[in-house]
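Protocol step 4 of 6: structure prediction from sequence.
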Amino acid sequence: MSVTPALRAAARSAYRDLLRASASTFYGDEPIQRAFRHNMRTEALYLDKSAQYDVKLVEEKIRLACELATMLRRNVVQARRTQTQDGDDAWNLRFTKDTELGENESIKNPPPMPSSRQARRLEKGGQSVEPVAQPSSNLPRTFSALRRAHKDREIPELREEDIEESFVRGSGPGGQSINKTQNNVQLLHKPTGFRVACQETRSLQTNRMLARRWLLQKACVSKHLVTPT
């Protein structure tokens, strides 16, 4: 399949639009403008003689030129260094009618996106991928704030009557002392549904102590444990 005249006309139109976008974005900065156009001609949009007849490659270059033109118009602004009346350095930004403006808060604190593993798992399950809920702005973000929060934290109290404890046979490396004894401690906190399992050591008593510690840590993070009245 050969490159049709309509496709060649679309390629010329996309290239001209990219040139106009670069002229608007780099207005008054001739060296940058010349360097950008040279890169487009010799690298980013370059096609050798054999590739000029490849329809797929030509279409890819057209899409790239359109995307670059949109990016230049919306997301690139010129900045020039100036000085204030007090002699301090300042920057003057030149915005155009096509510049995409946003709020400072949305730029400084963008909503976190799910990891690639979470996204793949959701896609396999047929679920839509939505941004993870943004953490509270009241969380400590510096070491000193974290140290104060640790000092002022309220540690919830575990009540044994709210805990359902069970013991199961251990698994994994460790020999008979692990695989033939019920040293795997499992705790269920009935008011909240929190569960922990501990098989860190061969000692049942140590694992019971660690399991309660883990449950308490989980409560400190979630702040859902019911404290006694």
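Step 5 (inspection) to follow. Helices lie at 5-25, 30-44, 55-75, 104-108, 116-124, 143-152, 176-179, 204-222.
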